[in-house]
Specification:
This protein has 106 residues and is mainly alpha-helical. The chain contains four helices and no strands.
Length: 106
């Protein structure tokens, strides 16, 4: 499956709303946080363009960029980790070939 960053917003929405295990709550919330940071960055940049940005807002810009990057990476990591977890659960539930031949479950 493609990384979250390589999918369209519509694809992420569709997968989050589906029965697919990921992206789920962790990934979606991390992306929501990153979008919130993006809107704060937009407000700072528009304010600066009109000479309305406070020194505190301008100072927050690099930290918001850093946090947005972290949240986007967290979304990717959460999605991958949960997919691996679900795959491991499925493997654990599937009897091994040897167990099936011997008539027992692992």
């Amino acid at each position: 499956m493609a990384a979250l960053g390589d999918r369209t917003v519509r694809e992420i929405f569709g997968q989050a709303a589906s029965t697919a295990p990921a992206p789920g709550a962790g990934s979606v919330m991390a992306l929501a946080g990153a979008w919130g940071a993006a809107l704060a960055l937009k407000a700072i940049r528009i304010s600066r363009r009109h000479d309305l940005a406070s020194p505190q807002a301008a100072a927050a810009e690099p930290e918001l960029e850093r946090l947005a990057e972290l949240m986007m990476q967290d979304a990717e990591d959460d999605c991958a980790a949960f997919q691996a977890y679900v795959a491991a659960l499925r493997r654990a539930r599937t009897p091994s070939r040897t167990s099936r031949r011997c008539g027992r479950r692992p």
